[in-house]
């Protein structure tokens, strides 16, 4: 499918060339790279090579997203992973929401990944399973911008395609079924109050992955889009300390 819509200002992919350690950074469902750019910039400033791909169908228009499948989102992340592999010896992966789901997917499929940092990752949302089954609606209200901090807005779609909800439900089922295959170290971030992904998703991930080194950090001062919220610096600091352990 040809891209019929221009990429929104701020939703462009980002690439920062640094040292031989790379960090793959994924945004979430209906969102854009804007939600992860502050992290990407901080990691680049610390000397890492960083890739923040724009997931196909995202950062343009929700009608374009409607035409994509979860395999397209995986392909976008795989492409970013290959870009890093050409430049780096070690690769870490992090992502928010569905970006966290894709982070888990990558760890299931690529045992060479050094460690992962899922942030409010989604593997089971019963509300979405119900929405995916709707027959009489094409688009639902937006799910973006669940942020506690005042005057901060996520660059996300104002509508959510029902077809796309069906795609993320399939992706979550796929990833949830493979959690035991994950053996790399994992630093899991979860917001204590999240109006998009129930916090028990992160606890389920913690319980089911086979990693010997795994840790859950609870963020008390942020909602779902924690990367743009009050705990942004906590995520950056803890992630940098975590990565340093495995270099």
From TrEMBL:
<dbReference type="InterPro" id="IPR012354">
    <property type="entry name" value="Esterase_lipase"/>
</dbReference>
<dbReference type="InterPro" id="IPR022742">
    <property type="entry name" value="Hydrolase_4"/>
</dbReference>
<feature type="binding site">
    <location>
        <position position="29"/>
    </location>
    <ligand>
        <name>substrate</name>
    </ligand>
</feature>
<protein>
    <submittedName>
        <fullName>Thermostable monoacylglycerol lipase</fullName>
    </submittedName>
</protein>
<feature type="active site" description="Charge relay system">
    <location>
        <position position="194"/>
    </location>
</feature>
<feature type="domain" description="Serine aminopeptidase S33">
    <location>
        <begin position="23"/>
        <end position="229"/>
    </location>
</feature>
<feature type="active site" description="Charge relay system">
    <location>
        <position position="224"/>
    </location>
</feature>
<feature type="binding site">
    <location>
        <position position="98"/>
    </location>
    <ligand>
        <name>substrate</name>
    </ligand>
</feature>
<dbReference type="InterPro" id="IPR051044">
    <property type="entry name" value="MAG_DAG_Lipase"/>
</dbReference>
<feature type="active site" description="Nucleophile">
    <location>
        <position position="97"/>
    </location>
</feature>
<dbReference type="GO" id="GO:0052689">
    <property type="term" value="F:carboxylic ester hydrolase activity"/>
</dbReference>
<dbReference type="InterPro" id="IPR029058">
    <property type="entry name" value="AB_hydrolase_fold"/>
</dbReference>
<feature type="site" description="Important for substrate specificity">
    <location>
        <position position="143"/>
    </location>
</feature>
<dbReference type="Pfam" id="PF12146">
    <property type="entry name" value="Hydrolase_4"/>
</dbReference>
């Amino acid at each position: 499918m040809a891209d019929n819509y221009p990429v929104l200002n701020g939703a462009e992919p980002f690439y920062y060339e640094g040292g031989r350690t790379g960090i793959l950074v994924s945004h979430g469902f209906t969102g854009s790279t804007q939600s992860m750019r502050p992290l990407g910039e901080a990691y680049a400033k610390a000397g890492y090579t960083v890739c923040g791909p724009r997931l196909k169908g995202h950062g343009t228009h929700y009608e374009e997203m409607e035409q994509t499948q979860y395999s397209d989102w995986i392909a976008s992340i795989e492409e970013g992973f290959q870009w890093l592999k050409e430049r780096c010896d070690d690769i870490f992966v992090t992502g928010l929401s569905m970006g966290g789901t894709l982070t888990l997917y990558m760890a299931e499929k690529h045992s060479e990944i050094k460690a992962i940092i899922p942030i409010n990752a989604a593997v089971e949302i019963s509300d979405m399973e119900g929405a995916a089954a709707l027959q009489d609606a094409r688009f639902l209200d937006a799910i973006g911008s669940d942020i506690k901090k005042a005057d901060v807005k996520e660059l996300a779609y104002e509508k959510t395609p029902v077809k796309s909800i069906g795609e993320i439900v399939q992706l979550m089922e796929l990833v949830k079924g493979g959690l035991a295959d994950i053996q790399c170290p994992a630093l899991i971030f979860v917001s204590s109050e999240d109006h998009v992904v129930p916090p028990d998703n992160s606890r389920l991930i913690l319980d089911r992955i086979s990693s010997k080194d795994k840790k859950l950090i609870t963020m008390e001062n942020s909602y779902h889009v924690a990367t743009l919220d009050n705990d942004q610096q906590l995520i950056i600091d803890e992630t940098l300390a975590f990565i340093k352990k495995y270099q």
